[in-house]
Design goal:
- The complex is a heterodimer.
- By secondary structure, chain A is of the alpha/beta class.
- Chain A folds into two domains: 129 residues, P-loop containing nucleotide triphosphate hydrolases (Rossmann fold); 70 residues, Helicase, Ruva Protein, domain 3.
- Chain A has ten helices and six strands; from the N terminus they run E-H-E-H-E-H-H-E-H-E-H-E-H-H-H-H.
- A five-stranded parallel beta sheet of chain A has the order 3-4-5-2-6, sandwiched between helices.
- In chain A, helix 7 runs parallel beside helix 9 and helix 9 crosses helix 10.
- Chain A is elongated.
- Chain B is of the alpha+beta class.
- Chain B folds into three domains: 115 residues, DNA Polymerase III, subunit A, domain 2 (DNA Polymerase III, Chain A, domain 2, Roll); 125 residues, DNA Polymerase III, Chain A, domain 2, CATH 3.10.150; 113 residues, DNA Polymerase III, subunit A, domain 2 (DNA Polymerase III, Chain A, domain 2).
- In chain B, the strands form four sheets. An eight-stranded antiparallel beta sheet of chain B has the order 6-2-3-4-17-16-15-10. Chain B has an eight-stranded antiparallel beta sheet with strand order 14-11-12-13-23-22-21-18. Chain B has a five-stranded antiparallel beta sheet with strand order 5-1-7-8-9.
- In chain B, a hairpin with a 5-residue loop joins strand 7 and strand 8.
- The chains are: A alpha/beta, B alpha+beta.
- Chains A and B meet through strand 1 and helix 9 of A and strand 19, strand 20 and strand 24 of B.
- Strand 1 of chain A pairs antiparallel with strand 24 of chain B, so a sheet runs across the interface.
């Protein structure tokens, strides 16, 4: 016979019912920090090079903006790990225009860099384009192949800067709305000055708030956001 | 308007329609029942703007006409009248007062104009199919306990009903979840349901439909559009707005890789959990299930009350300890009518699947408590 359990701090684990991210053009929130990146997307096909590099911190909207461009141009999304496993020719002919979302892990990898370099040349020759997204600014990235480095650094750069307060508030509301959660202005006003000023922090806060509200059957309120921000200090996501 | 009707028949219909009327209404007309007398029938309708119920019953109509009168008051009056009497209902010529007479009792009720009564039941509902009453009853009973009541998650405050395929067979599937547990029920896709939109039927409509099913005939006609659903019983039509939201992708929370399987008599498990949980305290009503070999130990402890354990035998051997909210567990096991229920587990922090051994139409997912 087992000993009766001591049940303190009992906590209901919720089901992982994450919402769908809205990736429409009208869902993309524009602020001073990402305005120039949006302008570059809108300028297509008038790009001075076959690659447009879209660079910005985690959760800053690179994938969203890439999806907007994909929708606008019919471009084909290419998983960047194909740079390792496939030839540049194959990748180049997967679609008329291409999206490579998140190439950072493959930079510094000779095989992948070679494929990316060849891809650049093929697209240039055939007057086609690719949107390449990465967290790092190419000028700060460590490339293995100098020819690729020079092309990536010379390509037009659509950089997303950290958000200002207005954009951060809108991003919080958008992320809650993706999860079909109504959030009060008070809860947003409470959260903004107390959170890290980054897109990634906004994403983490919303994931945590959703999970805590679901576990405890509560609404997204000031007291809930207080608990979320306190938990962020102590518990990893 | 003037009519007479047997008290029992009037009461039965009023029982149905008054149930939709909220006890507190800021809009006076919503407290009223719309009464129409014509062609040998009395029809009564109520609404809360989201849900409308309309029922007709045979009556001796002397003068056709229509009015609206306070639903709960009229219901209370008829309820208190002696059984077996005829009730006479008449509207004054000004249309402002309705008289209700039975035996020596007489009541005068204030009326509101028929034109003020909002009708939400109208409109074309393109998809339509018939469902056997027993199937609709099972669909609701197997899932409704898992609906959320938390207003923030409005899209979980109902049952999601949609068309899908399971093992190559087209099915009508119902899913409800409050984020802690999930219930899924399916039945063969009724003829005519192909191409129907997936809809979330609100909690209140589910409750009202469920009450009506037991008195319904063999089959219930369902019609729907993207925004409304209508249930037509013999003399009753219930129309409800649907929840304007997206139901979450529930498939991703139904685990496929759980490998710890035990089978147990459902009634034995239900009564053991019920007994042990007497000791559990707080909202979570935690019970711990420890499986060791062929033994299941259900236990609970509370700082105030003490502790409890009970051992039961299971088929299958596994080793795991997991905590559950006893109420959630009982909600599920009490739905299992067959003898055996199967628990498919992974670990103490992952969803457990519970199924009736003899009935593959229902599947339940229960999230554990971290204890």
């Amino acid at each position: 016979m087992t000993t009766p359990p001591k049940m303190q701090a009992v906590e209901q684990i919720p089901l992982d019912l994450a919402g769908r991210t809205a990736h429409g053009r009208e869902d993309f929130l524009i602020g001073p920090g990402n305005k120039s990146a949006v302008d570059w997307i809108d300028r297509w096909p008038d790009w001075p090079a076959p690659f447009l590099i879209l660079s910005g911190p985690a959760a800053s909207g690179k994938t969203h903006l890439a999806a907007v461009w994909e929708e606008q141009t019919g471009a084909m999304p290419i998983r960047p790990d194909r740079l390792l496993s496939d030839t540049a020719e194959h990748i180049a002919h997967a679609g008329q225009h291409l999206v490579l979302d998140g190439v950072d892990p493959w930079l510094g990898e000779r095989t992948a860099e070679t494929a990316l370099f060849h891809l650049y040349n093929i697209l240039k020759e055939e007057k086609r384009t690719a949107l390449v997204t990465m967290r790092m600014n190419p000028s700060a990235a460590a490339f293995e192949i100098a020819d690729l480095a020079s092309r990536m650094r010379a390509a037009p750069l659509a950089a997303i800067a950290p958000p200002d307060d207005t954009l951060l508030a809108s991003v919080l509301i958008k992320l809650f709305s993706d999860r079909q959660l109504a959030v009060s202005n008070d809860a947003i006003r409470y959260t903004l000055p107390r959170m890290e000023r980054s897109f990634a922090a906004a994403r983490d806060i919303v994931i945590r708030a959703d999970r805590l509200a679901l576990a405890q059957k509560r609404g997204i309120s000031v007291p809930l956001m207080r608990d979320v921000l306190a938990a962020m200090q102590t518990e990893p996501l | 308007m003037k009519l007479s009707i047997e008290r029992a028949a009037l009461l039965r219909s009023l029982n149905h329609v008054q149930s939709v009327v909220e006890r507190r209404n800021t809009i006076p007309i919503l407290a009223n029942v719309l009464i129409k007398a014509e062609n040998g029938a009395l029809s009564m309708a109520t609404t809360d703007m989201d849900l409308e119920i309309n029922e007709s019953v045979a009556a001796n109509v002397q003068e056709p006409g229509a009015t609206t009168a306070p639903a709960h008051t009229l219901h209370d009056i008829v309820r208190k009248l002696p059984d077996g009497q005829d009730v006479e209902i008449a509207l004054n010529p000004e249309g402002t007062q309705m008289t209700v007479k039975a035996g020596r009792s007489q009541f005068k009720l204030s009326c509101l104009p028929v034109a003020d009564f909002p009708e939400i039941g109208a409109g074309n509902l393109p998809a339509g199919f018939a469902v056997p009453a027993a199937d609709l009853r099972a669909l609701i009973d197997r899932t409704k306990f898992a609906m959320s009541t938390e207003e923030t998650r409005y899209y979980l405050n109902g049952i999601y009903v949609h068309e899908t395929e399971h093992d190559g067979v087209k099915v009508l599937r119902a899913v409800a979840t409050d984020g802690h547990r999930l219930a899924r029920f399916e039945m063969p896709l009724p003829e005519g349901a192909t191409g129907m939109p997936g809809v979330i039927i609100p909690r209140k409509a589910i409750g009202e439909v469920r009450k009506l099913i037991d008195e319904a005939g063999d089959s219930i006609q369902i019609s729907l559009s993207e925004s409304k659903i209508r249930f037509a019983f013999d003399h009753i039509v219930l129309t409800s707005k649907l929840i304007d939201g997206t139901f979450p992708d529930y498939q991703r929370v139904i685990p496929e890789g759980n490998d710890k399987i035990v089978e147990i008599d459902a009634k034995t498990l239900t009564s053991a959990v019920d007994r042990v949980s007497t000791i559990s305290d707080g909202k979570s009503r935690a019970v711990k299930i420890s499986l060791h070999g062929k033994h299941m130990t259900i236990s609970a402890s509370s700082a105030e009350s003490g502790s409890a354990t009970e051992e039961v035998e299971v088929n299958g051997e596994t080793d795991i300890e997991i905590g559950f909210n006893a109420k959630y567990l009982l909600d599920i096991t009490s739905q299992i009518e067959g003898e055996g229920c199967r628990l498919t587990l992974a670990d103490a922090a992952s969803p457990t699947i519970i199924q009736d051994n003899s009935d593959p139409s229902a599947l339940y997912v229960l999230m554990p408590l971290r204890v």
